[in-house]
Amino acid sequence: MFKVRVIPCLDVKDGRVVKGVKFVDLVDAGDPVQAAIAYDAAGADELTFLDITASHENRGIILDVVRRTAEACFMPVTVGGGVRTVDDIRALLRAGADKVSINTAAVKDRSFVKAAAEKFGDQCIVVAIDAKRVSSPGEPGRWEIFTHGGRHPTGIDAVDYAREVVGLGAGEILLTSMDRDGTKQGFDIALTRAIADAVTVPVVASGGVGSLDHLVDGVRDGHASAVLAASIFHFGEYTIRQAKEYMAQAGLPMRLDG
Amino acid sequence: MTVAIVDYGSGNLHSAAKAFERAARESGHDQPILVTSDPDTVRRAERVVLPGVGAFADCRRGLDAVPGMVEALDETVRRGGRPFLGICVGMQLMAERGREYQVTQGLGWIAGEVDRITPADPNLKIPHMGWNTLNARRLHPLLEGIPTGPDGLHAYFVHSYELKAQHEDDLVAQADYGGALTAIVGRDSMVGTQFHPEKSQRLGLALIANFLKWKP
Fold first, then answer.
1. Between 20 and 30 A from B67 (CA), which of A19, A163, A173, B187?
2. What are the structural domains, with CATH classification, of chain A?
3. Chain B: residue nearest A125 by CA?
4. Is A11 a catalytic residue?
5. What is the domain partition of chain B in residue ranges?
6. Angstrom distance (rounded) from CA A7 to CA B72
7. Which pLDDT does position A23 carry in this prediction?
8. Cα angle A189, A201, B9; round to 5
9. How large is the ipTM?
10. Which residues contact B162 (CB under 8 A, 6 or more apart)?
11. Does B21 lie at the interface with A, CB-CB under 8 angstroms?
12. Is A51 a catalytic residue?
């Protein structure tokens, strides 16, 4: 039976985990590879690295992180952040990433999605969508794509954009609600559902998880295929296993042998 | 006595090599794991692994771009009968042809074609991406000691196309995704997995260990 995925996400800057991971006694809580190994052992279904390294000359560091992770973890890894060219994707895949997520570069140039999917196959091309609600409360939901961490509006409708990038070859959508990100109020369920129901590929819900019920809601009500969270796992509020057992008790198909 | 993992520019060989090294070490079947694009190294290897990530046509082009590699594979595996494991697109390449973006010839070792997944339930997402259990269709040494069926271990899949084997006998295991999908094919000394054993944690390492001790 096919299972729902639970995906911890590690923000990595200059090769270090931002804020550190406190859920287990790591020798070095800032080492992304150690955190990845711990999540692998804890039964995470996939792992996502988001590289937020600002300077261009340090961008190679993430390749080393991915390489060392792939040496130690036999689980799927997605890497996003600053992916702009076909060569960026090739380097990440060769380092051991299974999927690469494209964000701003796809907003700027949709043909990049097509080129990437034709080159590497749609199964490894994820398009990350950062969306913010632009409709007023009470109106039917409407969301727009925002870039630069939610600061730059683009005027592009999120549902239309999702359909478009899937048509070009995106194999998965990583959907983050910029309204909910960091709030611990739960996913934007209406947004998640609008996108998940509009596209044929899996949608990973992200942004706002504060409780295990939020994870259940994202799948059951938001129709997401997978749920991504950071802080509830990193800071030891819940283990991956607790999350998966809770979701299984709520009736969702979960992999508990990991 | 080496295991050759064929490098033809299709990513992810590093993690595959590491998974083989670990399975070899832990299972007591330690043997050198070589990532190679040299046809002679493939000819000398005791076992051959063909990974593959990406689109079928692109992988085929990559394989053809390594001078002598297709011939070496054919000689070593099809005629030489040495144990072979194809992974993901490496498994799909065992078919006669692929229909991803365009019609492309495969190696023609397993009768059948690679075509887009069409689940009976239109609400199911494509790619088939994530963890699924396996349903064994027949006994195979690669599945020895690995729990299959709905309560069995999970394998990690990520694909939009599947190998539709023409002969029932070539089908070793399936996965259920709105209908049966081909998960493992096998014939003589060759076997292929649609899922990624190198990413499938417990099931994956056990399957690789089985491959390393397989004497077809």
1. B187
2. 5-249 (3.20.20.70)
3. B54
4. yes
5. 3-213
6. 41
7. 65
8. 135
9. 0.93
10. B92, B114, B115, B117, B181, B182, B194
11. no
12. no
| Neighboring chain B residues of A98 at a CB cutoff of 8 Å | 12, 53, 158, 196, 199
Task: Share the mean pLDDT of chain A.
Answer: 93
| Contact (CB<8Å) A202/B127 | yes
> Residue B131 is which amino acid?
W
> To 10 degrees, what angle do helices B13-27 and A86-95 make?
0
HSE, side-chain direction, 13 A CA sphere, residue A26: 22
Q: Which residues of B have a catalytic role annotated?
A: 88, 196, 198
Q: How far is CA B189 from CA B73, B76, B162, in A?
A: 12, 10, 21
DSSP type of residue A14: T
Cβ contacts of B90 within 8 Å, gap of 6 or more: B6, B10, B49, B50, B51, B52, B59, B192
Confidence category of residue B12, pLDDT binned at 50, 70, 90: low
CA separation for the pair A10, A230 (Å, rounded): 7
pLDDT tens digit string along A97-147? 999 999 999 999 999 999 999 888 888 999 999 999 999 988 999 999 998
CB distance A49 to A78 below 8 Å? yes
Instruction: Give the gap in angstroms from C-alpha A183 to the nearest C-alpha of chain B.
Output: 28
What CATH class is the domain B3-213?
alpha beta
